[in-house]
Amino acid sequence: MNFYNYIFQRTVNDNTDSKRILGVNIMKNEALDLLAELKALVGSADQVDVTAQGIADHSYDWWPVAAKWRQNGKMPCKPDAVVYPGNVDEVSRVLAWANDNSVPVTPWGLGSSVTGQPLTEYGGVTLDLSRMDKIIKVDVENLIVRAEAGVMGGDLEDHLQTLGYTLNHSPQSLYRSTVGGWFATRATGQLSSRYGGIEDLAYSFTAVLADGTILETVDLPRMAVGPDLRHLMIGCEGAMGVITEVALKIFPLPETRLNETITFPTVEVGKDAMRAIMAANLRPALLRFYDVAEARHAMQDKDFASPVMFVGTEGMDAVAKAEMEAVRNVCAKLGGKPIGPKGTEGWITRRYDFSTIEGFVMRPEGVAETIEISNNWERIMDTYDLMTERLAPYADEVLGHFSHVYSTGVSLYVILLGEAENGEESEARIKKMWEVAMEASLETGASISHHHGSGLARNPYVGRALGSGLDVMQRIKDALDPNNTLNPGKLGLRRP
């Protein structure tokens, strides 16, 4: 199988002599010339993959809809080639070439997105950054680590812990995602209520723009010299530039970690307790609250009958103890009952486990999805009630928890599990879940995503979510990427 066959893979007639890519007619001989040019831009020929397996491996991420495509024999998001750059200069050359030839480029970390962010709808090149996996420097004086974009998060965290430090960024995908992916998707972790999301943990970055320009920012605690360019790239999903290097905060490992499990009479009371904890200016590292349906899973007890909160405090021994006592007191005033650390500690040992969701998704008839949003305290119960009610007809189990807590509000994470008659029905039901969840979010004034990002799953709803902000974002996109080659069509932006 050769590059030409892939460039022509979406034509009606396999014998067609040309194909239109982003408005440009590509002839067979031109396709072969482009492949030769592409190989010349990187260090070795094996950095350009046009094999059937290489293409297939980059045609699906961990979005359950993509899993159903695979099971149902569909491949609607095929790149024409996969390129593995080894350094920022190779990224720059590939992007400049793609810009000159109007070839789409879609960045890829480890493919762990659950919304279709790294999947291309327009062919072109998938830029797999996994070979850019160097930990460049651990700066213990300034508490910064600098790493290439392809470093797996778990590898970085494990390395730091051997030195007595931690990122305090622990998404469930820690061991299947990259630091560049965190940055590009505006990720957050399970300790965000104290340490924040990636936007709070990232000091600086290096990125390559569509024309090959290398953008570097500096490791300084704060600057008042125009807008903060980090926020141009954080969450851009590769549409504004390709992240190649990131500098992140690090923290000394805490002296003490304490955990508690607290039950509440109702979901609303538990939600109020979370708000009260934040209003009291307490910042436990771990703060999660489960409705009864998900509490049974989180506690691994099918008979568990109460909504439950998991709390963790950490730091110097006296501080961690004092904060935990203060959290218990706040919760007690609202009817919370501590039942000991066992439930929370059990969850901590399983916090990177995807087996429940994947057990459903990997079977053709299995239905599973996770959808997260955020809202202010005054409206979050409206979103929870409406979303869980409307999603119930499409899932055998609707599970909900609140996490990633702020003084102004909280995220809601809904897990949907069920069985369909067959693979086609399973795919259709998951797509319907997205439609129902997004409409419920918009109707109740919620965000359409808290940390999984837009990708393909949320793309149809971005315009309504951003309002006039989408036009501003489109103007920025047009200025940075006038040929629309970087992950085109994502984030609700103009399609080719």
TrEMBL record:
Residues reported to bind FAD: P107, W108, G109, L110, G111, S112, S113, E237, G238, A239, M240, G241, V242, I243
Record GO biological process: lipid biosynthetic process
Cofactors, names only: FAD
Flavoprotein as UniProt keyword: yes
Pfam families named among the record's database cross-references: FAD-oxidase_C (PF02913), FAD_binding_4 (PF01565)
Active site: Y413
Site feature (Important for enzyme activity) residues: R288
Position of the signal peptide: none
Gene Ontology MF terms in the entry: alkylglycerone-phosphate synthase activity; FAD binding
Keyword annotations from UniProtKB, A to Z: FAD, Flavoprotein
Keyword check for Metal-binding: no
All copies of domain FAD-binding PCMH-type, residue ranges: 75-253
Protein family: Belongs to the FAD-binding oxidoreductase/transferase type 4 family.
Record protein name field: Alkyldihydroxyacetonephosphate synthase
